[in-house]
Structures are given as C-alpha cells and as structure tokens.
Amino acid sequence: MRLLLAVAIGLLCTSLAHAGDEREPASRRMAITVDDLPTQRGDLEKMRSITARLLEEIAEQEIPVVGFANEGKLHRLGQLEERTDLLRQWLDAGLELGNHTYSHNCDLSVPVEDYQEDVIRGETVLRRLMEERGMPLRYFRHPCLYTGPTAEYKRELDEFLESRRYTVAAVTVDNSEWLLGAVYSKAKQKGDTATVSRIREAYVPYMETTVEFFEDLSREFLGYELPQILLLHANELNADLLGDVIRMLKHRGYRFVTLEEALGDPAYSLPEAPSKRGLSWIHRWRKAAGLEFRREPDAPEFVVELFEGGYR
Prior knowledge:
By secondary structure, the protein is an alpha/beta fold. The chain is 53% helix and 10% strand.
C-alpha cells in the first residue's frame, strides 16, 4: 500500500513539474499569514501598539494577509470589547481573519472531541465579525501546526473541519520566528538592549536562510517552486521588523498573493502525513511519500540558549 502511494505521489509530482515547465517564467509567489491574534502576549496597551504597527506596515506594503485569532485572548475582565476591537482593525484594513482555536492548546493527548470543541469556541466572535462584513469564516490553522498523533485522529479532525466549511491553512515556510520573538519581547521588557540588538541583526538573515531552504526543498520534491505560505506571529519582533522581512522577500523575487491563490496550486492536494509537531507541509508530503526528514535551519544558537535558560 505504501509503495502504491509513493508511486502515485511520484506521478503527481512529475505532472506538477511538467505543468510548471509549461508556464511562462514568473516571479516567486508567497502568501503571508499571521498567527495568535490579537497578539502573542502583552497587556491591552501593548496589544494595541503591536496591532497598529503590524497593520501600518501591511498597508504600506499592500500585502494580502490572513490573521488567525485565538478568541480566548479576548476574554479578560472588563476588556472584551477593547480586545475584540483589535480584531475589527484587521478587517477594517481589508484583511481576513481565520480560526486558530479558542485556547491554542497544543496537547494532542486530548480526545479529538475536546479539540473539536475548542474549534467551535474559537469561532463565536469571529463569525459575527466576519458576517458583519458579509464575509465567510473559511480558514482554520492548527495550533502549533499539530494535525493529529495518528492517521485516524487526523482523519476525524479533517472531516469535522470540512463539516464546518473550513479550509486548512497549510504552511510551507515554517520557522522558529516565535522563539526569537519570545526572547526579543523579554529582552525589551528587561531593557536588555544588547540582546535586542543581536536579535534584530540575526532575524532577517535567519528567515532568509529558512526561505531558501524551503525553495530548494520544493524544487527537489515537486520539480518547481510552489507558491509558498509563510507563518509569522503577531508579536513585537514583527511589529518592529516586518518591513525588513518583506523587503528581503521582495529582493528574492517574491510577489505577495492571497492565501486562496496559494492554496489553489495542485501541490496542496498531495497526501500528507499526520504530524505531532510543527512541520512544513512539504515535509508532510515527503513523509507521506516515504522520504526521510530533511533538517531545516536552526534558530540562532544564542537565542535557543537564552530561551531554554528561561529567558522568555
């Protein structure tokens, strides 16, 4: 059975590569997604600052973005309306919102029924906000990109998401930006200007190395570069440096497309292996085809050491 699946995937990849050869040469394409709205961390004033700076940069760069929200972050005593307004600001900016579950629980030992309940709790406010603008709530992003510990768990969850008319927002350029962001935020909080400067200098080069890795992996596996989907987070690091990341990507020849356009590429219909860890969908397609995992670039060593030492 596994051999037959590998053969089928191989034939599809060959077909995709030939289709790519027939297309006119075009610039690279990328969809940008931002997780953990309203923001990863911070009090209300910090959340307002991060939201304003992210939206200002996105507007200046004229990039279509889907932001994925955790509704559990809205429910703070006396702040529900103010925090909900931060999500409205994304919609007011002409962007789209998706469901990232209520609590962002990354524990896959929970029964699938509990996972499903967290999905439903995570759409209460979102559906209302989207309906106010005549927009469907159509995208779902798994917390930590965990899609299930087993094939059966994943199948049951996939069927549930489909029944609620969700499209899963895959990620191809997965990365450890969240880790840099955690240390960066802590360093700013502590007034540790030396660490702040080191992370600012390391962030874009790290991201470029990661993007290049997945470009290469896409060409190796598919025979062409698919429209990539980049995962970022709503945090201070991106509030300060998103513009630098975008300029790096433009220098590499990327133009920015909607998530819908990116997901329309035939590669996103390939069979994928279940995952108990955050992995690029390219890794999942390769695993389903019986190929070995290819290690991606690590976060800067000094950041990992600080994070593991409790600097977060």
